[in-house]
Design goal:
Blueprint: E1 3-5, H1 10-17, E2 22-24, H2 25-28, E3 36-41, H3 47-58, E4 65-70, H4 82-88, E5 89-90, E6 100-105, H5 121-134, E7 135-141, H6 143-153, E8 159-172, E9 186-195, H7 199-205, E10 209-214, E11 218-223, E12 229-232, H8 242-252, H9 278-294
Parallel strand pairs: 1-2, 1-4, 3-4, 3-6, 4-5, 6-7, 7-12
Antiparallel strand pairs: 8-9, 8-10, 10-11, 11-12
Helix pairs in contact: 1-3
GO cellular component, one term: cytoplasm
Protein name: Homoserine O-succinyltransferase
Organism: Vibrio comitans NBRC 102076
Length: about 325
Amino acid sequence: MPIRVPDQLPATDVLRGEKIFVMSESRASSQEIRPLRVLLLNLMPKKIETETQFLRLLSNSPLQVDVELLRIDNRPSKNTPTEHLDTFYRQFEGVKDRNFDGLIITGAPLGLVQFEDVIYWEHLQSIMNWAKEHVTSTLYVCWAAQAGLKLLYDLPKRTRKEKLSGVYEHFIHDQHNPILRGFDDTFLAPHSRYADFSPEYLSEHTDLDILATSDTAGVYLASTKDKRNVFVTGHPEYESKTLHTEYVRDLAEGMEPAIPVNYYPDNNPDNAPRATWRSHGHLLFSNWLNYCVYQQTPYDLDKFSEANFTTDE
């Protein structure tokens, strides 16, 4: 089934070129079906690039998904045209009286910034608190995972001395957990962060189910037992050249970054990187949509109630 997006969204042509079934709003309005409503809060600077990456992952499911784009505030963007933001993005005030099946909060380039110094920190907290009563399942990605842990468990910001950048091997911890259904025992996934997520620390200070970890990168995937909050510390949405773009950018800024681990063939940045994480990225989002959202959400979103949710125990 397709994802439903605004008719003129730039991602539409990109995804159709990849033979992904994208349905325009005008066509979807004539269908008698209850699509899943998913809100994408895009905190990344290059919003067009990021929205395309996430829409690509949301498309690989038999479920019809109606995606709405949300911005954190109305400040001008250096990397996204104002016309694009005004046309395709909503302000929180325009959606806060509605319920949604799913919410995705992206990462943000704020790894070395303290939460209280983030200009929109209070507003982000308001949105995450709102989601408790208006969203079936929220997916926190990379920096947003750190922010979500602060909100839900009051965990302080934990920062690595050096940036974690590369593609790392991960091990699953519970092959019968629905979020991991179909996963191999080990899989690869990219990371690009300063945040520190050690399994020991999360196990000691939270009641989260730790689902997948890396010996080097720490926790990759965790969730609350009712699956209403899912934390992904890496970037399954990244395209094959995204880490390369970040590496070249950091070089140009004189940051002397380390070469991303296990990314370039022969560890040589002159060699074109290959995506080795794409299949598990698609599977993760498909499982989240199915088991955390579709299987849990009420058919009538107006009847949303926390009492509807169950755990695996």
